[in-house]
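Tutorial, part two.
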Amino acid sequence: MTTPIAATGTSTYTSSTGTRAPQQTMNADVFMQLLVTQLRNQDPSSPMDTNEMLAQTTQLASMEQLTTLTGLTEENFSLNMRAAASALLGRSVDYTDADGKAASGTVSSVTFSAKVPVVNVNGVAIRLDELLGAGA
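Running the prediction step on this input gives:
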């Protein structure tokens, strides 16, 4: 959204979108912006080599596929952790209590509200990745 500001009889516009946080990862949008900027600023007497442009387009496609694959892998890992936590219901598990001593108990419930599933053992919430072992 732009807001007109009167300045000595003339009209100027300023942006009210605020500051943008710098992007920490290279994604397809950033790659495409770099390619477009490169094309805009190329020397007309010496245009970009078509082989080089094809190589960059191939890199973009590869990067998009790797990004998709990474997302699917993370989702699969999350689903596997949920299945493992659910399989512990009613089973005896070993863990380290708040005093640093070994303890054990039966899993009575599982919650998935956190990034890592949390099991409830003897009224104590324990992250799945903090369990020491599981029995029958």
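The radius of gyration is 27 Å. In part three we will examine how such features are distributed along the chain.
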